[in-house]
Amino acid sequence: MTTAAAKTPISTPHAPAPAHTFHQGVRKGPFVQVSGQGPVDPETGEYLFPGDVAAQTARTLENVRAIVEASGASFDDVVMLRVYLTTRDDFAAMNEAYGAFVAQHCPSGVLPSRTTVMTGLPREEMLVEIDAFAITD
Fold first, then answer.
1. pTM for this model (two decimals)
2. For position 4, what pLDDT does the model report?
3. Distance (Å) of CA 118 to CA 41, 87, 127, 129, 132
4. Cα–Cα dist 11/69, whole Å
5. Which end of the chain has fewer surrounding CB within 10 Å, N or C?
6. How many CB atoms lie within 10 A of CB 39?
7. Residues 8, 26 contacting (CB under 8 angstroms)
8. By C-alpha distance, which of 43, 34, 95 is closest to 66?
């Protein structure tokens, strides 16, 4: 009989500190789930780039990448990203910034699957939030 892998929290100073009700991410065996991230400076906790969804998308993905890497995985191990936008009007700008980021950080050439949802977000200054699921060896 095999022992189940322990569920462990992921923590890094290279991404924003999480709220007290969840971790930046959780790893169980080869599976890594990154909590929803926003355009926050990890050092100051400040929300960055008000009104600029492209810059917010890039910053948010940097935060996601930092958490994925803190788990021992790489961004190329990400198999799914979920993007939450506050308005459909921001889709094209988000998509362009998103495409540039994932192409740069997925050297395998296999881009993650993605879902994009239009919704309200926890902070008014957030135009985008992104979470990720990665599988690593």
1. 0.95
2. 78
3. 23, 6, 10, 10, 17
4. 10
5. N
6. 28
7. yes
8. 34
- In one-letter notation, the amino acid at residue 24 is Q
Tell me how far apart the alpha carbons of residues 71 and 66 are, in angstroms, rounded to a whole number: 9
Angle between helices 53-70 and 91-105 (to 10 degrees): 30
Question: Using an 8 Å Cβ cutoff, are 10 and 26 in contact?
Answer: yes
String of DSSP letters for 10-79: E--TTSPPPPTTS-SEEEETTEEEEEEE-SB-TTT-PBPSTT-HHHHHHHHHHHHHHHHHHTT--GGGEE
Answer whether residue 3 shows pLDDT above 80: no
Q: pLDDT digit string (tens) for 18-51?
A: 878 999 999 999 999 999 999 999 999 999 999 9
**DSSP helix/strand/coil, 106:** coil
Residue 109 three-state SS: coil
Block residue for tokens 């990448």: 65
On the question of pLDDT at 1 being above 60, the answer is no
**CB atoms inside a 10 Å sphere around CB 26:** 16
Give residue 130's pLDDT: 98
Percent of the chain with pLDDT over 90: 93
